[in-house]
Design goal:
By secondary structure, the chain is mainly α. The protein contains 7 helices and no strands.
Length: about 150
């Protein structure tokens, strides 16, 4: 692929990530945004439609994951990296959404930090920030061996 097209595509994908973040309150149902921004230490969680929240979290996670896979593909052009990333993203979501739903059912009685960080991993593309350096490092190790 032409280098110019790659760079423009990467910029476009990163722009999509920023747009998802900028319009999150319009695109997704998430009453926990306001809860975690304000006085979550002093009051209980708001009334939440759990099913609606989980579906919208799935929708947002899927959008972020597709963009993440696109960025990884454009940077590395390695099918093994895409497969690994895809399985990691799917497995991580399944584990995190189950734990988050259980914590939501208990209304965060055991504390707010675990649900806060699980929610953050679900709604933000943090795995991209983990996978990019890991793949760069892996690529560097492989090139040293050869």
């Amino acid at each position: 692929m032409n280098k110019t097209i790659k760079i423009i595509s990467l910029l476009g994908l990163f722009a999509f990530l920023f747009l998802i973040r900028a319009y999150e309150s319009i695109l997704f149902y998430d009453p926990l945004i306001e809860y975690f921004q304000n006085d979550y230490l002093y009051r209980g969680i708001p009334e939440i439609n759990t099913w609606h929240l989980v579906v919208d979290m799935l929708y947002r996670y899927t959008m972020n994951s597709i963009i993440t896979l696109g960025i990884i593909y454009l940077i590395f052009d390695n099918k093994k990296y895409i497969k690994f990333s895809g399985f990691l993203l799917m497995f991580s979501f399944m584990v995190m959404i189950v734990v988050f739903s259980l914590l939501l059912r208990t209304k965060f009685e055991s504390g707010y930090l675990l649900p806060f960080y699980i929610r953050r991993f679900i709604v933000h593309p943090l795995f991209l920030l983990i996978l990019l350096p890991a793949f760069f490092y892996h690529k560097k190790l492989i090139s040293k061996k050869n």
